[in-house]
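Morning - iron/sulfur cluster inputs below, output right after.
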Amino acid sequence: MRAYFTDPLKLLKKLDLTAQQMNFSPTAESQFSFKVPAAFVNKIQRGKIDDPLLQQIFPVQQELNHQTDYQKDPLDEVNSLSRPGLLQKYHGRALLLVTPNCAVNCRYCFRRHYPYADKGHLWKQIKHNIQLIKQDSSISEVILSGGDPLSLADDKLADLLKSLESIKHIKRIRIHTRFPVVEPERVTRQLIETLTHSKLQIIMVLHINHAQELGRDNQNAIAGLRVRNITLFNQSVLLKGVNDTLEDLIQLSEALIKHQIIPYYLHMLDKVQGSAHFEVNEQEAMMLYQQLRAQLPGYMLPRLVREIPGEKSKRPIY
Ligand code: SF4
C-alpha cells in the first residue's frame, strides 16, 4: 500500500500536465479524496488530458455542478441495510460491506458519499452479520464488497472465509474487486492459497473499464487467479470520455477474453452527486450497444443494465 499517489498535483507533475489543463478542483478532492496506486498511474499516457484512466481518477471542477437527479445515495442503500454492513437486495444473496477502503478512488463511484464512519466499524460488525446470515437458510451466496474487500489483510480474509465456510447453506462467495487490475501486487501467493483452499466456490468480479488498464503486470496476477475454484467475470461502467466509443468497448471485450475474463455487465452510470459529467444517456447507450452487438460474438458481449433502487434484479437496457 506504499506506492500510492494521494496528491493530485504530484501526479500532474509526473504526467507533464497542469492543474489548469485538467480543471483540477481542490473542493472536489476534499469531497472525495484522491488515491491511486502507482501501477495504475504507470498506464496513464503522459501529456494526454483525455487519457481514459486519468479521467476516471482525477478530481475536476465539473464534479461541483450539482444536478437535482444526482443523489448522494443513488441506490438508496442506506435505507436498504438489514443492519449496518449487511445488504439484502436480491433473493438468495447477501452483501457484506467488509471495509470502507479501496485500492483506487474512482470519481464516479456510487458509494463516494457513503457514510461508512456513521455506520460504525464495519469489521467489528462482521461477526454479528455472519450470525444473521447463518440464521437465514435462503442465502446461498455471500457477496464481499466495501470499499474493496481485498483491502483486508490476507489473514483477516482467510478468517472471514472460514466463518462463511462453516455455514451449511452457503455455496458461493463473490468478491468484487479492482485490486488485481489497479494494484496487481496485491495478488499474493497467500491470497491465492486462501482462495483456492476454500471449500466454497469463489466468483471474482473484476472492475475494468478500459483495455488500457490491462498491462503486462496484470498477466501474472490474473493468471494466478485463474485456478481451480475461481471464476473471473468483469463489470464495467459506461462512462463518457472513458469508454463510450465502439472501438473502446470492442477493445475492452477483446482484452478481457484474452485474459479469460468473462465480460458480464456494462452498467449505466448510477446517478451519484459529482458524477454527472460521466453520463452517457440511454439513447446514446442503446445505439452504441446495438453496434457492439453487431460486432461481437455473444460470449464477448456484456449485458447493458441499470440498477434501480428497490428492484429485485438489474434492469436490462437493451
Ligand atoms: S468501491 Fe469500486 S468503484 Fe468505488 S471507489 Fe472503490 S474501487 Fe472504485
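Note: The chain has one domain: 74-316.

O.
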